[in-house]
Design a protein that fits this description.
InterPro entries: DhaK_dom, DhaL_dom, DhaL_dom_sf, Dihydroxyacetone_Kinase. This protein has 17 helices and twelve strands. It is elongated. It has two domains: 299 residues, 3-Layer(aba) Sandwich (Rossmann fold), CATH 3.40.50; 207 residues, Alpha Horseshoe (Serine Threonine Protein Phosphatase 5, Tetratricopeptide repeat). The longest helix has 19 residues. A hairpin with a 5-residue loop joins strand 1 and strand 2. By secondary structure, it is of the alpha/beta class. Helix content is 43%, strand content 13%. Helix 6 packs across helix 7 and helix 9 packs antiparallel against helix 11. The chain has a six-stranded mixed sheet, with helices on both faces.
Length: 565
């Protein structure tokens, strides 16, 4: 059975609603129906048109998250991915609607249409005027079913907002319904999934995908899509989805649109932002004016990885209704944007300036070694990532690879002298590696480079002094010491061995190999150490048995230097 943070699968809907209501000061629950509603409604005669929606649970924050002044009056929750009962919908209508009546916003699924439709009929027999607005925004079904049979998916949230704002402005039942229907007709959505969701109590996900497969054109109930295809870059997926919506909704360069980038439940904010970027770039390339953007998980499918894109044609009235205030907790707020991505020039400082000298006697050799080290780090990325994943956060390999790429991008003049090469490499790494490795390496290299500024052809003693200065710069900056299971467990023994060999009169190559041997021994020894600093320290004893990735990286690049001397 899959793992969920629940109590009993049979009680998840009620307990979810109780949690939503407990975290709000304006919501209440109906005692015997799974309905979240505004707690302090005015007297029936003074109530505006009630806007009610709902459906199966599992779409959180929809629908209860959109109950609030200026949006939904009530949300009716069925079991997971199951329409609520007719009686539950009827209870919501009775609880919220006054003489002004109620608009029911219904996603176009058979169960929802039947139960909301019958509840509307029963309410009307009780003298409560009711209008139904059906949302069928899934354009992926354009070649599969007739338009009136398409599914309602994430774009429905925009209709909730428009209808709720219209009602809050005091518009009549027929006006609210007509405004919402016209908006629904100007709306198109389409989704993509990287995997399936898992229902509470189920043994596993609803379907399986290979690591390079996606489902394109899916609903919001864990079902497969219209098409299974090979995964593509985010920009390509945006183009495919948006082109389908634009063609289906006949969106032209004269149209203004709102864009909704909606997560399906297990999609990171990072990925959604990348999809937003791709969508914005494509729409602007098509000369379509984007007026509003919302990005986040607004209507999910439990824990499904993936997202949907929605486009809504806008006019001044729809913009105003989308911009109107609401107290609904899950509404993401203003979607106003700049019509051009803003970029501000990076401020420059003196530390960014490097005056490259004429090439010294070691320039060619230093460049060869530097580039060999960078390539070795790139080759070792999978190994370093694996080590850091087992006893850290898994980012070491990728971080050092970015640094290696920055080294390979250095111009030939950056390798002119030992000092220039060290300082230029340090500056490149601090810009390329934003984690702890970047500042550590940069500080060490820059200090070592400064020590050698007056020496174009250092001997073993000068190199050993510079190495020791660099290693201790890392200790000073990070506050670590030997034995804490860090890169210093390779660097500090190496610095001592290098110094001792140089003072003993060993050649530069021999002295450096002695340093390499000490670094390797120290790095391997970290496997028996309990981490005291860094993210590995959060694992405590669980990290023992795996050597520190940062220390192993030191041993790798040091040996690569030795192999190229």
């Amino acid at each position: 059975m899959s793992k969920k943070l629940i109590n009993n699968p049979k009680n998840v809907v009620r307990e979810m609603l109780e949690g939503v209501v407990d975290s709000s000061d304006e919501l209440a629950l109906l005692e015997h129906a799974n309905v979240a509603l505004l707690a302090d409604l005015p007297e029936a005669e003074k109530r505006p048109v009630a806007v009610i929606s709902g459906g199966g649970s599992g779409h959180e924050p929809a629908h209860a998250g959109y109950v609030g002044k200026g949006m939904l009056s009530a949300a009716v929750a069925g079991d997971i991915f199951t329409s609520p009962s007719t009686d539950a919908v009827l209870h919501a209508i009775r609880a919220c609607a006054g003489p002004a009546g109620a608009v029911l916003v219904v996603k176009n699924y058979t169960g929802d249409r039947l139960n909301f439709g019958l509840a509307a009929e029963l309410a009307q027999t009780e003298g409560i005027p009711v209008e139904i607005v059906v949302v069928a925004d899934d354009v992926s079904l354009r070649e599969t079913v007739s338009e009136e049979r398409r599914r309602g998916i994430a774009g429905t949230v925009l209709i909730h907002k428009i209808a709720g704002a219209a009602a809050a402005k005091g518009k009549s039942l027929s006006d609210v319904a007509e405004i919402a229907r016209k908006a629904a007709g100007a709306l198109g959505s389409m989704g993509v999934a990287l995997g399936a969701c898992t229902l509470p109590g189920a043994k596993g996900p609803g379907f399986e995908l290979e690591s390079d497969e996606i489902e394109l054109g899916l609903g919001i109930h864990g079902e497969k899509g219209v098409e299974r295809r090979e995964i593509a870059p985010a920009d390509d997926l945006c183009k495919t989805i948006l082109k389908t919506i634009i063609d289906d909704r006949n969106i032209t360069t004269s149209d203004r649109v709102a864009l909704l980038v909606n997560g399906l439940g297990a999609t990171s904010a990072l990925e959604l932002s990348i999809m937003t970027r791709g969508a914005v770039n494509y729409l602007r390339d098509q000369n379509i004016t984007i007026e509003r953007i919302w990005c986040g998980t607004l209507l999910s499918a439990l824990d499904m990885p993936g997202c949907s894109l929605s486009l809504l044609k806008l006019d001044d009235e729809r913009c105003a209704l989308l911009d109107a205030e609401t107290s609904a907790r899950a509404w993401p707020g203003s979607g106003r944007i700049s019509h051009k991505r803003r970029e501000i020039a990076d401020p420059k400082g003196s530390s960014d300036e490097i005056n490259y000298p004429e090439a010294g006697p070691l320039a060619e050799k230093i460049e060869k070694i530097g580039r060999a080290v960078a390539q070795k780090i790139k080759d070792e990325e999978p190994h370093l990532t694996d080590l850091d994943t087992k006893a850290g956060d898994g980012d070491l390999g990728a971080s050092l690879e970015r640094g290696a790429d920055a080294m390979l991008d250095l111009p030939a003049k950056a390798w002119a002298t030992p000092a220039t090469a060290l300082i230029a490499t340090g500056n490149a790494l601090r810009k390329a590696i934003a984690g702890s490795s970047g500042p550590f390496y940069a500080n060490a290299l820059i200090r070592a480079g400064r020590h050698l500024q007056e020496c174009d052809n250092p001997g073993p003693r000068e190199w050993a002094e510079a190495f020791d200065i660099g290693a201790n710069a890392i200790a000073e900056l990070g506050g670590a010491k030997e034995g804490d299971r860090t890169m210093l467990d390779a660097l500090l023994p190496a610095a001592r061995a290098f110094d001792e060999a140089a003072k003993a009169g060993k050649s530069g190559k021999e002295a450096w190999q002695a340093a390499c041997d000490a670094a390797r021994k120290g790095a391997d020894g970290t496997a028996e150490m309990k981490p005291e600093l860094g993210r590995a320290s959060y694992l405590g004893e669980r990290a023992v048995g795996v050597p520190d990735g940062g220390a192993i990286a030191i041993a790798i690049w040091m040996q690569e230097i030795a192999d190229n001397l």
